[in-house]
Amino acid sequence: MTTTTDHHDHDHEHHGPAKGLTRWIYTTNHKDIGTLYLWFSFAMFFLGGLFAMVIRAELFQPGLQLIQPEFFNQMTTMHGLIMVFGAVMPAFVGLANWMIPMMIGAPDMALPRMNNLSFWILPFAFAMLTSTLFMTGGAPNFGWTFYAPLSTTYAPPSVTYFIFAIHLMGASSIMGAINVIATILNMRAPGMTWMKLPLFVWTWLITAFLLIAVMPVLAGVVTMMLMDIHFGTSFFNAAGGGSPVLFQHLFWFFGHPEVYIMILPAFGIVSAIIPTFARKKLFGYSSMVYATSSIALLSFIVWAHHMFTVGIPFAGELFFMAATMLIAVPTGVKVFNWVTTMFRGSLTFETPMLFSIAFVVLFSIGGFSGLMLAVAPADFQYHDTYFVVAHFHYVLVPGAIFSIMASVYYWLPKWSGRMYNETLGKTHFWLSFVGVNVTFFPQHFVGLAGMPRRIPDYSAQFADINMISSMGAFLFGASQLLFLFVVIHTIVAGKKAPAKPWEGAEGLEWEVASPAPYHTFTTPPKID
Ligand code: HEM
Ligand SMILES: [Cu+2]
């Protein structure tokens, strides 16, 4: 599809990175900032993962063994917040920074200084959020959904720091999204027309619009909380004429698009990797673009499927049920296209492909349980049970997280100039695959049987399944130490990688050397 002219990278050696710490603090280079985001996300993945291990250790047996219920609630809340805002979102922004300019033949992101700021806000926001664990009254304990009045009238004092942290994360996300949009709209190489854009670029463009649409709503809702807590308003306080249900509407108007923010870039990644290892063009390219856009539009009209049990009008139940089910149509198109791309391809199963195939299969399981939850009358049984925990972990862990792992294996040769060890990569894949299923598959059943979520203890009939689930979680957690080892091992001791390590790969990122030079496409490539 594309060729490059010589882009004179050797002319720019004098523009190499600065030495030492200042390189990272002052950098405006999209590759450096991408690297910062990815390492930050990796660190948060381990912190959030540590909290998950604490939760699963407490739930290993019925009865209270390790931690008190108050602390348990802080762990679920911090786990959810850190995984969503600290691990998944920054990983995708890191990938966007590294890959979008290289994929569209641009020399950098459109707004490099804002790029630096949007990253450096994050360590402060998360340091502040994490520090709440050591404050009087402890960390936020009201769930990652922070429903009022739990998060207002009954919240620990640290909630004010939580609100500030959310504001900072929101500002960072909005800046990141503006940057992505400005880059894609303005900096494509000549000839890189819309329908030639790699799908990762398309899915990120659509994600960026979702971010700009909903992060201000999140900022609004935490500001209303701040007013209720400190300035005597009663937005969410029924005693003062406000409404806790209003909180839920506002939160989920942000929250449902947010779950698509965490999955659309994953769709783009998988759409890049599967064709490479099937050695075929992606089946149904334009239908992928339309399906992604449809999913994004629909995501704005389904929010109350999280609120079937609060007492919304009957017509509302029907509307949100039907609208939610509609999302299955474009999603089905995507899964069909990935499977059809593989059909009769000459497949090989390197680590990125293994993670991508597992993504297609296991994300579909999460999609199906989502459809089950969308059935309003049935949701009265599932609501706030472990069935929900199983559902969203299937879309988040073998969905979002597996796509990120796939992308690390796929692009690490480009980033570091070195190949990872295939045996270790595959071992990491299989341990994670087994771990994730052992952890979350049984939770469907314990949820259907009635075990509520967000509880530190449960009745004896749930004991066996919880023990299995905890063992799976420990396996999954331990396997990620192997992942860390593989990444570090690649960077320090991997074999040298060629410019294009995957024979079936297409796209501009493979036309530059490995590791990608500090400046690429300072002269735009020629695209035919
Ligand atoms: C193997 C890794 C993981 C394990 C073992 C795990 C385990 C758990 C557990 C036990 C809960 C508490 C459920 C409850 O009591 O309601 C939970 C909640 C949650 N997890 Fe995970 N988790 C993992 C990975 C992730 C990832 C990668 C994400 C996001 C990308 C995530 C997002 C959440 C969210 C949003 C909640 C809800 C928190 C809340 O109830 O407010 N988890 N997880
Ligand atoms: Cu939703």
Automatic annotation (TrEMBL):
The keyword Iron applies. It is an enzyme of class 7 (translocase). Its EC number is 7.1.1.9. One of its GO terms (molecular function) is metal ion binding. Cytochrome c oxidase is the component of the respiratory chain that catalyzes the reduction of oxygen to water. Subunits 1-3 form the functional core of the enzyme complex. CO I is the catalytic subunit of the enzyme. Electrons originating in cytochrome c are transferred via the copper A center of subunit 2 and heme A of subunit 1 to the bimetallic center formed by heme A3 and copper B. PANTHER family: CYTOCHROME C OXIDASE SUBUNIT 1. This is Cytochrome c oxidase subunit 1.
